[in-house]
Amino acid sequence: MAIAHRGASAYAPENTVAAFDEAIRLGAAAVEFDVRLTADGIPVVLHDATLDRTTNGHGAVARRTWVELLRLDAGSWKHPRFAGTRIPTVEEALRAMDRRAIPVLELKTPLDPQRLHRLLADHAVLDHAVVLSFQAQLLAKLHRCMRRLTLGLLANRWRPGLPRLCQQVDAQILALSYSALTLQRAQQVAGEKRRLWCYTVNDVAAIAACTAVGVEGVITDYPDRIGARPKT
Ligand code: G3P
Ligand code: CA
């Protein structure tokens, strides 16, 4: 399964509606995006804690109100043709996807479970969305409030007991860095009846390696490369 990383971020400014639309056009089954909170508590889509890399703003997003973010350009840094592209709220991201792809929300900061529930329910994606986090305890808390929600634990390194930890916090998915992937580890994940995703896999040969060891979901900046044949 092709999971577009921050949307089709190789082709359009990451974590914007333009990148989500492009991902869907290229056939991504799912679209991953990063969630942070503004100073006035609005969930918005941005990877970094600060605005500097991907917008014409500066400083911490958590210190800016939503109205302040509305003035920022989140597209020009990628290419002038994206000038005027805004940082979307999570609400806008879900509306733009309109159930055409599985929304995969990575919580970069804890979000109130009731608030998250309302957002997902309002867009009829409670049974459809996936929520990822590097924090196992955050996933456990979400599971207590939303039993139906599909959860995934992110890990940038392998450690013994990782598949078991997923079981303990009711994360159906382990989303592992590609750099930590081995056949033996993939088998351990399958042995614990967890689903294995890998990030961020852009190279066609690496995508083929994921498929060969049974990775179910590949998080990639190039969703059009999933299914492409590696050069021999
Ligand atoms: O969700 C997988 C991947 O996106 C985690 O790393 O830094 O791209 O958010 P990062
Ligand atoms: Ca992410």
Structure description:
With 232 residues, this protein is an alpha/beta fold. The chain has helices at 17-25, 66-70, 90-97, 113-122, 136-145, 162-168, 183-191, 204-212; strands spanning 2-5, 30-37, 43-45, 102-107, 130-133, 150-155, 173-177, 195-199, 217-220. It has a single domain, classed as TIM Barrel (Alpha-Beta Barrel), CATH 3.20.20. The protein contains 8 helices and 9 strands. Calcium ion binds at residues 32, 34, 106.
Could you give a short description of this structure?
With 232 residues, the protein is an alpha/beta fold. The protein has eight helices and nine strands.
Give me some keywords for this one.
binds SN-glycerol-3-phosphate, binds calcium ion, 8-stranded parallel barrel, 19% strand, single chain, 232 residues, 9 strands, alpha/beta, TIM Barrel
Describe how the helices and strands are arranged:
Layout: E1 2-5, H1 17-25, E2 30-37, E3 43-45, H2 66-70, H3 90-97, E4 102-107, H4 113-122, E5 130-133, H5 136-145, E6 150-155, H6 162-168, E7 173-177, H7 183-191, E8 195-199, H8 204-212, E9 217-220
Parallel strand pairs: 1-2, 1-9, 2-4, 4-5, 5-6, 6-7, 7-8, 8-9
Antiparallel strand pairs: 2-3
The site of SN-glycerol-3-phosphate has 11 residues, from strand 2.
